[in-house]
Design goal:
six-stranded parallel β-sheet, alpha/beta, about 625 residues
């Protein structure tokens, strides 16, 4: 889309090389403005190699890099590019080059949340705890995981936090619980040291230690660049801020672009106060606050949408001033329609009816989206759209382990690891491979009950299948199917004793005749199923245990811990549509996207907008770091 730069954008593009904060509201063209500012600087004589762009996610870094390559094709052809990375990527590159100075090897392995949870879980051991509830180990791991992040993201260490504990007489249950959690965090740190791995907080913490303990290195890095641009700065945490501050403060021309109203990663340690405090953290060389320039012209939304957005922002800001969003010159009045429905199904049917009407009025399917607050809201809407004949596509929202082709493979793997896993066995027997009914399972259950007194522990369903000839109430065809299952199970069980996990997955898929079934599907459904299996196999191939043997049990445990994360992208399913389709995705993943028509279901009190059930208050939550232990005042 071609358009004229606004005066606000011109001010940013032409701004001098001084510390600058850009307060960019939603839909105001911040990425375009960043690219054009870099273009103006390079046209003014700055070499692309001495410009650095840092953003929050790999996806955003890729998009910014693509925009820059499209804007500077000649430079790309010459092999000269502007360096674009993420905040963690920047720390990683520093350690790759200078990490030996702080005890980090070049071949360091960075572990993600699933491996972090595994080490924390192992740290529970068999100890006795006074304040932690061992009847719910996952809850303890979650709290220790949060505290470990709090310690790392605030450049602290376990011993410093432990030494800050007040006297526990009279007893302070919160601090006493925190001290027990710190024991787990300490074991976690020791395990990382023993295994030679680091997590993402370690990357930033070690890089910060590098540039603060070795000022000459910090100066060397600073001298490499003439300008630094920070995107999505509102999503940074205090440690990332302090790393950048140790290198690029004291008047360095660093530009931070963000919007404190769009902080969406607070659950990962981000602080909106980082953006608010940028003018002080990165002051000009004379000590005065950095300049702030706004971007307020929204080119994405109609007037009624912006009016509502500004009312919400005014409520959020309270007595604080803020720059309201303004409509673009082509903005229309726009409409907001509401429906008051009695049930979830009535709402889904109403949504399908409204989408059908909008499409008949001329809006393409691809310009319509349904944005949900939670994944569980997707099902009813999708079913209603399918019933109405409306093509739709569920964007990546997890669910890889639930799609049929993957869930059956996973059921086989779980059964091979644990013959007593009745849920997985039932999933296999009730599936398309054997087509048993609930009555057949009831017959097997009856056999188990009758023989439960003969052994300790009692027999399982798999034992009933072994003795299927003596199970009452089974038709001959059912006995034949059980015999077929028994042969397949025994064959795979023998292979599982020596095969690698990837090889076992492939053998199981072959035994299931999975690829033959996929070949018989309609083109788009078959392609989706094939890609989902490929994605799962890629996950298996890329998995490496951080300790011990790469066994089936340890891989299944990794999947369980991976599922405990919030929206892990490794578990995103693939969906291929026949053609143009209505998009269905979560609000969280819709950030930065736009459509002509958007539908939001389940707008109810406490649901949308969501209502927090827990606050990160260290006064009554032991997993959060007390405010007085966090670095540098805001």
């Amino acid at each position: 889309m071609s358009f004229q730069l606004t005066p606000e954008q011109h001010n940013i593009v032409d701004a001098p090389l001084v510390p600058l904060r850009v307060s960019a509201g939603a839909g105001t063209g911040k990425t375009t403005t960043i690219v054009l500012r870099l273009k103006a600087l390079i046209s003014g004589g700055i070499a692309p190699e001495v410009a650095l762009g840092i953003t929050f996610t790999n996806k955003a870094a890729g998009e910014l890099g693509n925009r820059l390559r499209a804007e500077f094709p000649d430079l790309t052809a010459d092999g000269r590019e502007i360096q674009v990375t993420t905040y963690h990527g920047f720390a990683y590159h520093l350690l790759q080059e200078f990490g030996a100075l702080v005890g980090v090897e070049r071949d360091m392995v960075v572990i993600g949340p699933a491996h972090q949870r595994q080490l924390l879980e192992e740290g529970l051991g068999s100890d006795t705890y006074e304040y932690l509830d061992l009847t719910y180990p996952k809850g303890i791991v979650d709290r220790a995981f949060t505290l470990a992040g709090q310690v790392g993201d605030n450049l602290m260490d376990v011993e410093s936090v432990r030494n800050a504990a007040p006297s526990l007489e009279p007893r302070d249950d919160v601090w006493a619980t925190r001290l027990e959690l710190l024991t787990l965090v300490d074991r976690y740190a020791a395990a990382k040291e023993r295994l030679g791995v680091v997590d993402y907080a370690d990357l930033v913490g070690r890089a910060h230690r590098l540039v603060t303990e070795h000022p000459a290195i910090a100066q060397r890095i600073r001298d490499r660049y003439r300008v630094v641009l920070l995107d999505e700065y509102q999503d940074t945490d205090p440690a990332q801020r302090e790393l950048l501050r140790a290198i690029f403060s004291e008047g360095f021309p660093i530009t931070a672009v963000g919007d404190s109203d769009q902080t969406i990663y607070e659950w990962r340690g981000a602080s909106r106060l980082n953006f608010d405090g940028f003018v002080r953290h990165f002051a000009q060389d004379d000590g005065s606050d950095a300049a702030t320039l706004p971007l307020t012209l929204n080119r994405r939304s109609d007037r009624v949408i912006l009016d509502l957005a500004n009312r919400i922002r005014a409520h959020l800001h309270g007595n604080e001033s803020f720059e309201p969003l303004r409509p673009g010159p082509d903005a229309e009045a726009g409409t907001i329609e509401t429906g008051w429905l009695g049930t979830r199904d009535e709402e889904a049917d109403w949504i399908a009816e409204q989408i059908g009407r909008v499409h008949e009025d001329g809006t393409p399917w691809t310009e319509i989206a349904v944005l949900v607050r939670k994944n569980r809201h997707i099902g009813p809407v999708r079913e209603a759209l399918l019933t109405a004949g409306i093509p739709n596509e569920v964007a990546s929202v997890g669910g890889l382990l639930e799609v049929p082709e993957v869930s059956e493979l996973l059921a086989w793997l779980r059964l091979l690891e644990d013959p007593g896993d009745t849920t997985s066995l039932a999933r296999i027997l009730l599936g398309s491979g054997y087509r048993l009914g609930l009555g057949d399972l009831a017959a097997l259950s009856g056999w188990v009950k009758r023989h439960s007194h003969t052994a300790e522990p009692g027999p399982a369903f798999i034992d009933a299948i072994e003795d299927a000839t003596n199970v009452e109430g089974l038709a001959p065809v059912v006995r034949a199917r059980l015999a077929g299952f028994q042969r397949r199970y025994r064959s795979l069980l023998v292979e599982a004793q020596s095969a690698s996990v990837p090889d076992l997955c492939r053998s199981t898929l072959a035994a299931m005749h999975a690829w033959t079934e996929i070949d018989s599907m309609e083109d788009h459904a078959g392609l989706s199923a094939r890609l989902n299996l490929y994605r799962f196999l890629d996950l298996v191939e890329s998995w490496v245990p951080i300790g011990g043997r790469a066994s089936l049990g340890s891989f299944l445990r990794h999947l369980r811990l991976l599922s405990d994360e919030s929206a892990p992208r490794e578990l995103d399913a693939v969906a291929i549509s026949r053609g143009p389709a209505v998009a269905i995705l979560t609000v969280h993943r819709a950030k930065g996207l736009e459509w002509d028509t958007v539908v939001i279901p389940s707008v109810v009190e406490g649901g949308f907008p969501s209502q927090s059930t827990s606050y990160a208050n260290p006064v009554d939550k032991a997993e959060y770091l007390p405010y007085d232990l966090r670095p540098v005042s805001y």
